C-alpha cells in the first residue's frame, strides 16, 4: 500500500475523501493522540440493488466446546438471533490456511494451488475466491482481518498483486501495527492483543460496522469476510476475553437492522492446536470440531421452509467448510431454495450416493447423507473425528513400528533441506487404536479386523517437538502407511527459521541459529 505525507488540519467538521486516515493531536508541541480510522467510500461501478447479503464472521482457533465454556455470552447472543448450530462440523486439515482456503475457494488448498497458481504465479489473484462470485452478481465485497502478520493470505505467503475486494482492511491494519503501541497478553502471543488504546479485534469490528452501516444506508447487498485472530489464536482461555467483544459486535449488528437482509455465518477454522490440552484425548477431539452457526433472516424461514428444515436436519451430520462454501454460494441464487428445485437437487444427490459417487461438497440446504464418511467429505484421515479410539501401550510392537514410520516420513520430507536436522525418535508419548471412519458401519470382531488406524504422538530430537500422526495398518499384509499429514502439538518458536516452506516449519529444527547463514 501507498501512504501520503499530506497533512490536513482538522476543524470542527473536516470532510474526508480518503479510505484511510491517520489522526494526530498535539498540545504545546507534544503529541497527545494518534490513531488510524477507515472510511467506506461509495463504489463507482453499477451495483446490484437487491439480494441477500452474507457475513462470514470468524474466530480463529476456537472449538465448539471451548466456545461453550469460554464464550457463553456470544453463544447466548447467537441463540437469541435464532442460530442453527452444526454439531458435526469437522475441520478438513490441520491449520488455518488449509481449512480456510477450502471455505473461500471450495477446494482443498493443494488442489486450488495446482489449478490457479499457474505460470509460476505466487500471488492469489487468479484463484476462484468466493467473493468473486458475489462481485459478478453486483455485490460489494469486503475482506477484513485483525492480525496483519497472521493474515490468511500473508503468513509466509505474498498475498495479492492487486486489491482483491472493494473494501480491504489490510492497509489500515499494516499502518496501525507499524505506528501504534502494541501489547501482548503474555510473552508467547504471536499477535498483539491490544493496538493503541483498544483490543486489536475491536479495530476490526469498528471498521466492519462502518462497512455494514454504509451498506444498509445505501441498500447495497454485500459479501463480507471478517476474521478475528488476535484474542483466540494463542491460548485456550483467552477466548474468555473475546466473549464480550463478540457479543457486543453481534448486538450492534442487530441494531443496524442488517440481519433482516443478511445471512450470518459464525465459524472457526479449528480448535486449539497447541498447548497442554492437545496432549489429552479431549483436546484431540476438540481440535477437530470447531464452531459453525448459521443465522438466517426470519423471512427466509417462512419463504424457504424446506431449505431451512434441511439445514436443521443436518445439525448432527458430518459437514465441512467445503459444504459451507456450497451453502453460501447458493445464496446468490435464492430461487434455487424454492421447494421444486430443492427437491430435484435432493433427488439427484440421493442418486449419486446410491451409485457410490457422492459429491465431496454438499449445500447444507440439502439433506447430507447419514452414511457420509470423512473420506467422502474430503477430510484428511488424521483429522477425522468419526473414529472410535482406544488406548494402546506405547511399547506395543505395532505402535513402535508406526512411530518409526512417522518419523521416517518426516525425515524424508526434510532430506532435501540440509539446514534442517535429521530427527530421531526420543519417545512415544501416546498411542490409540481405532477403525477408519469408512468401516464404522461394518465393525469386525477383533480377530477379523482387516484395517485399523493408530494415532501416535511422538517426541523427537533435537528440538523436543511433539508430533502426532495417523498410521493406517493393513493387518493381513502387515503394511503400514501414513494417513495424511503429521501435526505439531507444541510451539516451534524461531527454531524453524530456515524452513523453505510453510508446511515444513512444523518439523524443521534448524542446525544454525537465525542470521548465521
UniProtKB/TrEMBL annotation:
Stored InterPro entries = Alkaline_phosphatase_core_sf, DUF229
Cross-referenced PANTHER family: FI08016P-RELATED (PTHR10974:SF1)
Record protein name field: Uncharacterized protein LOC127748655
- Can you cite an annotated GO cellular component? extracellular space
Originating gene? LOC127748655
A Pfam match is DUF229
Q: Output the lineage of the source organism.
A: Eukaryota, Metazoa, Ecdysozoa, Arthropoda, Hexapoda
Q: Extract the CDD domains matched here.
A: ALP_like
Q: Which SUPFAM superfamilies match?
A: Alkaline phosphatase-like
Amino acid at each position: 500500500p501507498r501512504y501520503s505525507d499530506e497533512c490536513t488540519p482538522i476543524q470542527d467538521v473536516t470532510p474526508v475523501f480518503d479510505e484511510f486516515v491517520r489522526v494526530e493531536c498535539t498540545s504545546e508541541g507534544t503529541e497527545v493522540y494518534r490513531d488510524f480510522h477507515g472510511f467506506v467510500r461509495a463504489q463507482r461501478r453499477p451495483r446490484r440493488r437487491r439480494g441477500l447479503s452474507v457475513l462470514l464472521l470468524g474466530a480463529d482457533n476456537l472449538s465448539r466446546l471451548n466456545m461453550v465454556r469460554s464464550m457463553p455470552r456470544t453463544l447466548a447472543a447467537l441463540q437469541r438471533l435464532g442460530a442453527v448450530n452444526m454439531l458435526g462440523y469437522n475441520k478438513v486439515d490441520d491449520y488455518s490456511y488449509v481449512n480456510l482456503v477450502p471455505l473461500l475457494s471450495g477446494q482443498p488448498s493443494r488442489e486450488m494451488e495446482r489449478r490457479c497458481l499457474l505460470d509460476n504465479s505466487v500471488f492469489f489473484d487468479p484463484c476462484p475466491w468466493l467473493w468473486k462470485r458475489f462481485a459478478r452478481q453486483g455485490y460489494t465485497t469486503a475482506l477484513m482481518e485483525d492480525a496483519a502478520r497472521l493474515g490468511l493470505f500473508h503468513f509466509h505467503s505474498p498475498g495479492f498483486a492487486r486489491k482483491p475486494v472493494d473494501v480491504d482492511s489490510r492497509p489500515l491494519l499494516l499502518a496501525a501495527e507499524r505506528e501504534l503501541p502494541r501489547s501482548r497478553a503474555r510473552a508467547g502471543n504471536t499477535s498483539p492483543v491490544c493496538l493503541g488504546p483498544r483490543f486489536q479485534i475491536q479495530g476490526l469490528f469498528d471498521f466492519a460496522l462502518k462497512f455494514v452501516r454504509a451498506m444498509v444506508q445505501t441498500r447495497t447487498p454485500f459479501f463480507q469476510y471478517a476474521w478475528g485472530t488476535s484474542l483466540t489464536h494463542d491460548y485456550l482461555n483467552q477466548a474468555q476475553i473475546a466473549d464480550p467483544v463478540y457479543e457486543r459486535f453481534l448486538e450492534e449488528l442487530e441494531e443496524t437492522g442488517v440481519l433482516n437482509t443478511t445471512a450470518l455465518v459464525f465459524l472457526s477454522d479449528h480448535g486449539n492446536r497447541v498447548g497442554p490440552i492437545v496432549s489429552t484425548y479431549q483436546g484431540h477431539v476438540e481440535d477437530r470440531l470447531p464452531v459453525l452457526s448459521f443465522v438466517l433472516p426470519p423471512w427466509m424461514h417462512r419463504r424457504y421452509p424446506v431449505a431451512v428444515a434441511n439445514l436443521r436436519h443436518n445439525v448432527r451430520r458430518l459437514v465441512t467448510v467445503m459444504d459451507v462454501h456450497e451453502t453460501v454460494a447458493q445464496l446468490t441464487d435464492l430461487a434455487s431454495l424454492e421447494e421444486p428445485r430443492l427437491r430435484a437437487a435432493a433427488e439427484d444427490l440421493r442418486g449419486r450416493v446410491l451409485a457410490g459417487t457422492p459429491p465431496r461438497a454438499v449445500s447444507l440446504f440439502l439433506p447430507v447423507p447419514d452414511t457420509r464418511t470423512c473420506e467422502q467429505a474430503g477430510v484428511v484421515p488424521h483429522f477425522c473425528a468419526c473414529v472410535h479410539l482406544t488406548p494402546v501401550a506405547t511399547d506395543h510392537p505395532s505402535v513402535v513400528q508406526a512411530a518409526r514410520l512417522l518419523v521416517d516420513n518426516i525425515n524424508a520430507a526434510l532430506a532435501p533441506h540440509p539446514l534442517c536436522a535429521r530427527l530421531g525418535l526420543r519417545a512415544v508419548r501416546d498411542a490409540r487404536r481405532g477403525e477408519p471412519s469408512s468401516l464404522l458401519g461394518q465393525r469386525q470382531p477383533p480377530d477379523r479386523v482387516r484395517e485399523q488406524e493408530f494415532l501416535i504422538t511422538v517426541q523427537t530430537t533435537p528440538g523436543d517437538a511433539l508430533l502426532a500422526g495417523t498410521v493406517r495398518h493393513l493387518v493381513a499384509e502387515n503394511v503400514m502407511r501414513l494417513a495424511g499429514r503429521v501435526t505439531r502439538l507444541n510451539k516451534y518458536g524461531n527454531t524453524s527459521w530456515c524452513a523453505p516452506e510453510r508446511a515444513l516449519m512444523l518439523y524443521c529444527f534448524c542446525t544454525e541459529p537465525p542470521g548465521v547463514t
